């Protein structure tokens, strides 16, 4: 047995935890997307009720989840940067010519831009939190209680073409990140089996498309229509 | 009858490990498509020697694809354009239609260039020495069937053991990771009962050594498998991860 910290920060350990945290965040994204669906309904109450439940209705459980998410994100990002730096250090002199070898290689555009799409997504998360969670505060009354009108924040937020397109572009990049990320996470966890490899790659593409389009449509629809009547 | 080829070679020249190195261009005329790439390099060196110039240093030994000594990056491809083939087994006909070939050494900090196209791959030996063995008492040969091995396991172990340690996986990896090499060396033991007793220590020590040698981390890009002359699969890397996580968790 190796000392845990040494193992966790080794080349294999880093990717192991990067994979776990990545998969955890994919899970979160699905829950987030489900929550967003209530925006499509056009009833501001259902979305506000959902948002109020998250902030006030979970008896603090949400704080635990938020902590896990932030910790997971930091582990993911720090490992990713470490992998990136290791690669730069390992090849100080680049090839004059390089070529993708094809065949069994999985070096796609999405695979070789992970650090860039990831960095943009990281910036996005910060902007997204400032923009919404810590953004403009409007109030509304629901069932006799005064709660935050998150629906208004979202609707007004996506009146800005800048924010809308920023969201749309990042959501498209998420698709690229996940296309390699999902499959890669399985490989990093050692889960590779000839019978399931095709399935894992396929599910990865499916997840990438679902999440990307799912998140991308909403700001676009809200911006173009000004929100459900 | 294929026609002979005229080529411009752009070759990395470097006096010694301390030299900065640079590309030098050479013209080769009337190259037969049926000679091997290394034979073409031999011809170039004869020419250079004849002209009282320093020949280009490159490695080769068996020239039949089994020793793993040769290895060059030609036009951005480790071991040249032919898949599942070492450099020594590539013939000039594979470069049909090309007029310019860029020839470079394996590029990674862990393989310092000794001269021209020759690199020191000692880092791979160090990984092997860190745990790529089994400890047994020598003596009489054991009975052939004293330890039974399932056919599937022995096939997979043989596939992993096909690694000739040429270093093409490192050369082709955008991160210059030695994961495929290390994984093959770990796998060939992990798959067999004889490798069982030391498996955790082996995985831990070989991965640790790989990191110490200064190779990059694996990003699961798979260029290594595409470049490997023995077509060793990255499923071995997944096995290495399982072995290592086993060692990490207890
Ligand atoms: S010289 Fe032995 S494999 Fe090429």
Please tell me about this protein's structure.
The complex is a heterodimer of chains A (229) and B (250). Chain A is built from nine helices and two strands; from the N terminus they run H-H-H-H-H-H-E-E-H-H-H. Chain A has helices at residues 4-8, 11-40, 44-56, 61-90, 109-112, 114-133, 150-157, 161-188, 197-225; strands spanning 139-142, 145-148. In chain A, strands 1-2 form a two-stranded antiparallel sheet. Chain A starts with a helix and ends with a helix. Chain B has 250 residues and is of the alpha+beta class. Chain B has two domains: 5-104, Ubiquitin-like (UB roll) (Roll); 121-135 and 148-248, Alpha-helical ferredoxin (Fumarate Reductase Iron-sulfur Protein, Chain B, domain 2). Chain B has eight helices and seven strands; from the N terminus they run ββαβββββααααααα. Chain B has a five-stranded mixed sheet with strand order 2-1-5-3-4. In chain B, strand 3 (73-74) and strand 4 (77-78) form a beta hairpin. In chain B, helix 2 packs antiparallel against helix 6 (199-212), helix 3 (151-161) runs antiparallel to helix 5 (179-190) and helix 5 (179-190) packs across helix 8. Chains A and B meet through helix 1, helix 2, helix 4 and helix 8 of A and strand 4, helix 6, helix 7 and helix 8 of B. Residues 60-63, 65-70, 86-88 of chain B line the site of FE2/S2 (inorganic) cluster.
């Amino acid at each position: 047995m190796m000392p845990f910290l040494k193992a966790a920060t080794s080349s294999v350990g880093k990717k192991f935890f990067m994979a776990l945290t990545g998969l955890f965040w994919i899970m979160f994204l699905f829950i987030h997307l489900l929550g967003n669906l209530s925006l499509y309904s056009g009833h501001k109450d259902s979305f506000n009720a959902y948002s109020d439940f998250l902030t006030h209705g979970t008896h603090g459980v949400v704080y635990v989840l938020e902590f896990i998410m932030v910790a997971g994100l930091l582990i993911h990002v720090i490992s990713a940067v470490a992998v990136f730096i290791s690669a730069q250090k390992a090849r100080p002199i680049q090839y004059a010519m390089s070529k993708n070898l094809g065949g069994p290689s999985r070096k796609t555009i999405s695979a070789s831009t992970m650090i860039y799409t990831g960095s943009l997504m990281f910036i996005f998360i910060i902007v997204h939190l400032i923009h919404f969670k810590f953004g403009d505060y409007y109030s509304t009354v629901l069932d006799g209680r005064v709660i935050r009108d998150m629906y208004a924040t979202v609707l007004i937020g996506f009146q800005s073409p800048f924010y809308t397109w920023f969201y749309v572009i990042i959501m498209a990049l998420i698709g690229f990140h996940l296309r390699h990320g999902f499959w890669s996470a399985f490989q990093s966890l050692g889960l590779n089996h000839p019978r399931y490899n095709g399935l894992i790659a396929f599910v990865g593409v499916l997840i990438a498309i679902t999440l990307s389009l799912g998140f991308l449509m909403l700001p676009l629809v809200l911006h173009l229509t000004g929100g459900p009547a | 009858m294929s026609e002979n080829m005229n080529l411009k070679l752009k070759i990395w020249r470097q006096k010694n490990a301390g030299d900065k190195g640079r590309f030098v261009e050479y013209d080769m005329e009337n190259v037969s498509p049926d000679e091997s790439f290394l034979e073409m390099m031999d011809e170039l060196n004869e020419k250079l020697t004849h002209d009282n110039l320093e020949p280009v240093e490159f490695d080769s030994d068996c020239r039949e694809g089994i020793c793993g000594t040769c290895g060059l990056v030609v036009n951005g491809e480790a071991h040249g354009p032919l898949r599942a083939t070492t450099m020594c087994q590539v013939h000039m006909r594979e470069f049909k239609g090309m007029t310019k070939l860029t020839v470079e050494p394996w590029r990674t900090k862990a393989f310092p260039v000794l001269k021209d196209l020759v690199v020191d791959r000692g880092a791979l030996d160090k990984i092997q020495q860190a745990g790529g063995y089994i400890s047994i008492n020598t003596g009489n040969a054991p009975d052939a069937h004293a330890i039974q091995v399932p056919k599937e396991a022995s096939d997979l172990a043989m596939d992993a053991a096909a690694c000739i340690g040429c270093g093409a996986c490192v050369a082709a990896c955008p991160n210059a990771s030695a994961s495929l090499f290390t994984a093959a060396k770990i796998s060939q033991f992990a798959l067999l009962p004889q490798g069982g007793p030391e498996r955790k220590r082996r995985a831990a020590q070989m991965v640790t050594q790989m990191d110490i040698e200064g190779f990059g981390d694996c990003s699961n890009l798979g260029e290594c498998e595409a470049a490997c002359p023995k077509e060793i699969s990255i499923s071995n890397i997944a096995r290495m991860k399982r072995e290592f996580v086993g060692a990490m968790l207890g």
